[in-house]
Amino acid sequence: MFAPPSPSMPRALPAGHRARILQAAREVSFPPGARLFEEGGRADRFWVIRTGSVDLDMRVPGRRAAVIERLGHNELVGWSWLFAPHVWHLGAEAATPVRAHEFDAAAVRALCRDDPAFGRDVTQWVGDVVAHRLHAARIRLLDLYGPYGAGSGV
Asked: Coiled coil: which residue ranges (predicted)?
């Protein structure tokens, strides 16, 4: 996330590091229904949404993929690129037309290795996003598959 977050969202990457990481970005767009990545695939890039929304989903045996969370403006799409073995843990699909900054994961990991302060802040930023997404996934799965009302108040 590039902008300051709300209290329920992970903290943003510091301004100086946002500017630095944006130098490694390219602008891309996706039509509605485009798959950005599939669960189990190679995590070699990531995105920050400029406009539109992306659904994160999870395979559920014998059912359609469960949408875990919908991401929008300034939100990070993809975190598996930072942590070995660099394999996607979820899938992602454009829910609306999307414009985004796309980052090459290997290039950003190299920036992190070359500048420990930058690497620490990027890792903290992504780690905060991971913690938020795990909590959201837990609540969503309880809503879908738990006893009535199990996901509320968690």
From this structure: none
